[in-house]
Amino acid sequence: MAEITPALLMRGYAMGVFPMSEHRDDPEIFWVDPKRRGVFPISDFHISRSLARRMRKGGFRVSLNEAFDQVLDGCADREDTWINEKIYSLYMNLHETAQAHSLEVWNEEDKLIGGVYGVTLGAAFFGESMFSRATDASKIALAFLTAHLHNTGFTLFDTQFITPHLASLGAIEIPRAQYLDQLSEAITKAADIQSAPLPSVQDVVQRRTQIS
Questions:
Q1: How far apart are CA 123 and CA 148, in angstroms?
Q2: In 48, 62, 97, 201, which residue has its Cα 20 to 30 A from 146's Cα atom?
Q3: d(CA 53, CA 184)
Q4: Distance from C-alpha of 137 to C-alpha of 106, rounded to nearest angstrom
Q5: Where would I find the H helices in the chain?
Q6: Are 21 and 139 in contact (CB under 8 A)?
């Protein structure tokens, strides 16, 4: 396989594939092209009543691109991770060129308790990984991220795979062909994740609360 550079990585995203490694100590990187793709319909993120109550209670703050390296560290800090040294370096390079972004969740002591990071291309956001060190921290991160993506003009939120956790928040699986159609349309549009401030808790909860 040819050496994966930041530019080649972005071309891979544009084609619908993404990189992974078997584990942190494996120097090899391979491309992944799932037959079925996980996506978040940006306008249909599910916030349960319990999560809405948690968010209204406060005691946290969110930020954008304030601690990308710490979010990347948090995502890699687990026993089984696909983020090897090369992948870590690639995403740090993309962040330096404003192509990779993080959303952070902090507690009242200003300690990082959760976050999510991903790559942007046109109006597509490719969610790469997330982590949580406190109850609901990753859910809060995703709730704010989807609202913010909506506010800044994004049309595709790619989660790569589907998990029960993501499905409970509104993520769905679509066939590869459908994903590629959405991708080809999204990357031709303009969106800027840094073009607006993050939404308020009230904005996120009012527009996303699941009625049930």
A1: 12
A2: 97
A3: 38
A4: 9
A5: 6-15, 49-57, 68-76, 85-96, 137-151, 164-168, 176-186, 201-208
A6: no
Dig out the tokens for 133 from the structure: 């060190």
Mean pLDDT of all residues in the chain? 92
End-to-end CA gap in the chain: 49
Distances (CA, A) of 30 to 10, 16, 121: 14, 14, 21
Q: What confidence tens digit (pLDDT) does each residue in 4-28 have?
A: 899 999 999 999 999 988 877 788 8
pTM equals 0.93
User: Does 212 score more than 90 pLDDT?
Assistant: no
User: Scanning the structure block, which residue is given the tokens 């509104």?
Assistant: 170
SS3 per residue for 100-121? EEEEEEEECCCCEEEEEEEEEE
Measured between alpha carbons, how far is residue 169 from residues 75, 95, 128 in Å?
20, 27, 17
